[in-house]
Amino acid sequence: MLDLLYVNELLVITHFCTRFKLLIFQTFLKLTNCWLLVITYKHGRTQVMGWVGGRTS
């Protein structure tokens, strides 16, 4: 997990991806004080999936 990321930075990443018309699906997992962002988008005919995690403390 990455402790240097914050929710505000995630909103910037989400807005950045939305501008390029990517299909974004966000899923936040509330395990203790950790969150997880899952991003999926299509690049040509390939579907790419990535995640970003961190702590909200």
UniProtKB/TrEMBL annotation:
Q: Is Transmembrane among this UniProt entry's keywords?
A: yes
Keywords attached to this entry? Membrane, Transmembrane, Transmembrane helix
Q: Is the keyword Transmembrane helix assigned to this protein?
A: yes
Its source organism is: Helianthus annuus
Q: What is this protein called?
A: Uncharacterized protein
Highest taxon of the lineage: Eukaryota
Q: Which residue ranges traverse the bilayer?
A: 20-41
